[in-house]
Every structure is written in C-alpha cells, then in structure tokens.
Amino acid sequence: MSIQKQLAAEQKAAMKSGDRATLNVIRQIQSEISVAKAAPGFDGEIDDDLYLATIATYVKRMGKAHGEYEALGERGREQADKLAFEIDYLSAYLPQKLDEPATRALVDQVITDLGATDPKMTGQVIGAVMKSGEEVDGKLVSRLVNEALAEK
Where does a domain end: 62, 91, 120? Predict the structure, then answer.
C-alpha cells in the first residue's frame, strides 16, 4: 500500500475515533505535500518518493523545533510533547537509520577502504559514508569520523 493510501486510511480511522493528534499530523503532511506540488519546477509524480522526502524534511524541521521547545523548560513542555508525538508517528514511515555501533563499523570500513590516516581527509570520508547507500545520521557520521581520524 502506498504511503498516500496508508495515510488516508489512518486519517479516516483518526476521524472516527476522535484522535485529534494523529489527525493533525496527517493533515500537516498533506499540506506539506500540497506545497511541494505547487513549488516552481515540480513536474514529478505524487508518489512514495515525494512523501518520503516531504516527511523526512518535516521530521528534521520538527526535531530542531522540539529541541528549542525543550530548552524553554516548563513553558515549552506542551508544544515539545506535541512535536515529539509528530516525530514518533512520522518516523514509522521513514527508513530506519543505522545505530551508533553499525555507523561506527561503516565509518571504520570506509576509513580503511580509503586509507585515510590524516584528519585532512575528513570531508572525503564523510562524503563516502553518506554516499554508501546506508541510512545514517549526518551528525553522528561527522562526530565518528572526526574521532576516528583524530586518533590516527
């Protein structure tokens, strides 16, 4: 089932059950898709790739906002909780990223493959890891590469 159809089914279920939080996040994604479709130069299809890209961008944006609301303490608690729900809900649609041990193993393998021994090769190693085809967290990759090359 396509993401679009799955979200439509979940929206219908949320409407029937009165689940406002789920309904709001699905409507927000539909709004984000509409904006993407209306963007100048968009001539692609509305498919799972568009949904995945849109959801990933939205989750990343909300992750940053979540951190800002958490920094506000009690004043930002309600909004931080709302964003945490949205991030958790939408993350189910995204490919799972490698955890830290698996990412560390990938970084070590790329360093070995490239023969990287100098911290000046950090950019090359990060680029190779990001292009490896694995789903990885860019910040984690950067930190692990810097740590690994600093030890050499």
Answer: 91
Q: How far apart are CA 34 and CA 41, in angstroms?
A: 14
Count up the domains in the chain and report the number.
2
> Domain range holding 34?
3-91
CATH of the domain at 135: 1.10.10
> For 54-82, what is each residue's pLDDT tens digit?
999 999 999 999 999 999 999 999 999 99
Q: How many CB atoms lie within 10 A of CB 152?
A: 10
CA distance 93 to 81: 20
Question: What's the whole-model pTM score?
Answer: 0.73
